[in-house]
């Protein structure tokens, strides 16, 4: 692309920020600099309005027929499911299951695949997984006698592909559960290559897309994974809603995790039969407004080209990388070649939580701690890290404010 074409496609960040009311807040007397997007992203007015409008004009329980509001609610709810189907390029809305989030989605998959496992079967998970993609597998391993086999990483924070190949070579390998993007390191995993190899070996493939969808639009047919999961709240949508994409034939065969209303076809004391997909996995009254809000978030993002979002985000990451050396004693954890705009770091003489508190005093929100990735913390030999995670609505000026604040902290507090 020529510079001119790139400039023409550049986002108007000043205008975009007006779509996110919370970005105009002040914190401790300073304008908010929100760099904790990896934990939860902020919501545009389009999402707030869609949920408000739903409650004011259309709220009722869904799939009950009998009256007009029920029809309106069902239309909006199922419309949002179609929005997600299109976003993921799934074949059918039968493959799009609403969950409370990534965590619940992985629990549903783990429970569903449990009956395919026997004692000694192996579940492969990488060293950089979020606990949500480790613990459900450990619980299933406990139940079935299967074992967890970690896939190691390199010091830069990339998948160690010889470790991956070694794990895959085992005749007992059955399931690959892997993140698309690391929430701590920002590493983008070479998913196509890994999934192709896993598929050739006949493994079930489960992808944790929680950190990927704010930056990339995954095509589940091109990826050819069996399951892909994410949360609404990291994709500029509401909390309490997430998505489990699952290949239809597998989902047909899998048992549901929860029983109750909505997920049954017929109940009798002799035998209960399950509803068809996707409802089989959606026991109880679903989070209707949240689904509508997530649909609105995806529609909102759809007005921008993914290239223009990525260009803006990569400029933020590049600026942050350039400024690292302006803070003596600061070192970055996670230096993969292919990263989303996430920077984990430590500072000599300072505990991560102190960095977080001192930045907050200056209006800057980052996250500190183990980031629900303790095996990864063990690998780097740290109790936790400080993590700045950027979204497309952040500015280069905010990146500079972060580093100016870190310089000040370093001068005043690091010993
Ligand atoms: C946040 C996150 C999760 C958990 O998401 P919830 O919304 O808390 O269920 C899982 N995996 C990754 C990579 C995450 O970043």
TrEMBL record:
GO BP: cysteine metabolic process
GO MF term set? cysteine desulfurase activity; lyase activity; pyridoxal phosphate binding
Give every Aminotransferase class V domain span: 33-402
Which CDD domains does this UniProt record tie to the protein? SufS_like
Q: Which reaction does it catalyse?
A: (sulfur carrier)-H + L-cysteine = (sulfur carrier)-SH + L-alanine
Q: What Gene3D superfamilies does the database record attribute to this sequence?
A: Aspartate Aminotransferase, domain 1 (3.90.1150.10), Type I PLP-dependent aspartate aminotransferase-like (Major domain) (3.40.640.10)
Q: What is its EC number?
A: 2.8.1.7
Q: What class of enzyme is it?
A: transferase
- Tell me which UniProt keywords the record has, alphabetically: Lyase, Pyridoxal phosphate, Transferase
Q: Which InterPro entries match?
A: Aminotrans_V_dom, Aminotrans_V_PyrdxlP_BS, Cys_dSase_SufS, PyrdxlP-dep_Trfase, PyrdxlP-dep_Trfase_major, PyrdxlP-dep_Trfase_small
Q: Which cofactor does it need?
A: pyridoxal 5'-phosphate
**Biological function:** Catalyzes the removal of elemental sulfur and selenium atoms from L-cysteine, L-cystine, L-selenocysteine, and L-selenocystine to produce L-alanine.
What NCBIfam families does its record include?
Answer: sufS
UniProt lists the family membership as follows: Belongs to the class-V pyridoxal-phosphate-dependent aminotransferase family. Csd subfamily.
Q: What name has this protein been given in UniProt? A: Cysteine desulfurase
Which organism was this protein described from? Answer: Tamilnaduibacter salinus
């Amino acid at each position: 692309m020529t510079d001119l074409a790139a400039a023409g496609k550049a986002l108007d960040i000043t205008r975009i920020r007006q779509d996110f009311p919370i970005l105009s807040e002040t914190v401790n007397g300073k304008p908010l600099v929100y760099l904790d997007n990896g934990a939860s992203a902020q919501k545009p007015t389009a999402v707030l309005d869609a949920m408000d409008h739903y409650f004011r004009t259309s709220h009722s329980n869904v799939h009950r027929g009998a009256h007009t509001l029920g029809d309106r609610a069902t239309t909006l709810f199922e419309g949002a499911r179609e929005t997600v189907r299109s976003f993921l390029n799934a074949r059918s809305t039968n493959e799009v299951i609403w969950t409370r989030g990534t965590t619940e989605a992985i629990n549903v998959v783990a429970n569903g695949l449990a009956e395919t496992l026997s004692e000694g079967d192996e579940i492969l998970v990488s060293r950089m997984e979020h606990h949500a993609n480790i613990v459900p597998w450990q619980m299933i391993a406990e139940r079935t006698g299967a074992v967890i086999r970690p896939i190691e990483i390199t010091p830069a924070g990339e998948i160690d592909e010889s470790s991956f190949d070694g794990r895959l070579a085992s005749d007992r390998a059955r399931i690959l559960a892997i993140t698309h993007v690391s929430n701590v390191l920002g590493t983008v995993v070479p998913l196509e290559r890994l999934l192709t190899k896993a598929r050739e070996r006949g493994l079930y493939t489960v992808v944790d897309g929680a950190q990927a969808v704010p930056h990339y639009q995954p095509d589940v047919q091109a990826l050819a994974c069996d399951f892909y999961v994410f949360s609404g709240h990291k994709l500029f949508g509401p909390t309490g809603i997430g998505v489990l994409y699952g290949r239809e034939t597998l989902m047909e065969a899998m048992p549901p995790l929860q029983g109750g209303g909505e997920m049954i076809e017929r109940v009798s004391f002799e035998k209960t039969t399950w509803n068809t997909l996707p409802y089989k996995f959606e026991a109880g009254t679903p989070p209707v407004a949240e689904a509508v809000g997530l649909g609105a978030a995806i529609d909102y993002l759809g007005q921008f080209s993914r290239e223009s979002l990525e260009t803006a985000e990569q400029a933020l990451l590049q600026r942050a990388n350039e400024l690292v050396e302006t803070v003596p004693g600061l070192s970055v954890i996670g230096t993969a070649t292919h990263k989303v705009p996430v920077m984990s770091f430590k500072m000599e003489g300072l505990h991560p939580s102190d960095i977080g508190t001192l930045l907050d005093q200056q209006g800057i929100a980052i996250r500190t701690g183990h980031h629900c990735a303790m095996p990864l913390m063990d690998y780097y030999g740290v109790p936790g890290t400080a993590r700045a995670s950027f979204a497309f609505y952040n500015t280069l000026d905010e990146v500079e404010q972060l580093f100016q604040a870190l310089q000040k902290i370093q001068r005043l507090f690091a010993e």
